[in-house]
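User: I would dearly like some help making sense of a protein record. I have put the entry right below:
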Amino acid sequence: MSSFWSIWISVITLGTILGCFLILRWCLKNKTGVKEGDDMHHEFDGIVEINNPLPRWWTIMFYATIVWGLIYLALYPGLGNFAGLLGWQSSIQDARSVEEVQQKRQAAMEEGGLLQYAREMEQAEERFGPIFEAYAKRDVKDLATDPEALKVGQRLFIQNCSQCHGSDARGMRGFPNLTDDDWLYGGSPSAIKTTLLQGRQGQMPAWKDAFGEQGVKEVVAYTLSLSGRKVDPKLAEAGESRFAACAACHGQDGKGKYAFGAPNLTDNTWLYGGSEKAVTETLMYGRNGVMPAWKDILGEDKVHVLTAYVYSLSQDTSEQAQQ
């Protein structure tokens, strides 16, 4: 925060408290010209106003709130850039990366700083760490049949994953549906865990310059034909020869490859839309999807539980549990 805004906020804050104090003092003085306890000659609906002073208990409480406000502003941050005498912080708000957060958090703890979020995280780790550690020792498929573990995994999912994949995990345009059996990098427990731990970065190159607009039109026709769509047969035939450039990732049969995160083009599951316009846009300009890595954010034990939950979304775990 700049010095100007720091001073501006401090002046307004302290000025408001001072103003409340002066108004209170003014109200304690009898400036009406009427003796205390006498009739003010104001009457409404049978109610007569009497010149009575403010109740003593009310006045004391008002003074107490003013004193408390000043003490609070002295101990905790609230006056612009003043950090407070206790050095308390809710969190490290100026950090720009996970690594920077961890470094500043460690430095604050070593210096005895009152970092609220860090202390709450330590308390949570002490309480819940052993639970996650015990879950991490179990096989993902086994964990996916444990109702209590799935409740934990669901909470982790809602807190960290639902912003992109939706609270029901059915995804949206550009973000995969996790409840079906269509996976870009594989739906096995190990593949899902790798995705969560390390993240993914999908790169579909733009083909506008290589194919030209007519070439893109031909490849779009052939691509749509792979999933049984009705297209111009001449365009599809011409696009088939050009598709050789796409086969390196999607395979000669168009069924995709987990190693590259290349989607299956023979079904009707489309990450960015399956209309002719959407597929044309994908080929013309390419796509770049990023799945963040959660290893440093959640830790491996929590990722293990989250893996079990994500895996369970596309599985019939009820039958597994009965076996």
User: Anything to note?
Assistant: The domain at 200-291 is CATH 1.10.760.10 (Cytochrome Bc1 Complex; Chain D, domain 2).
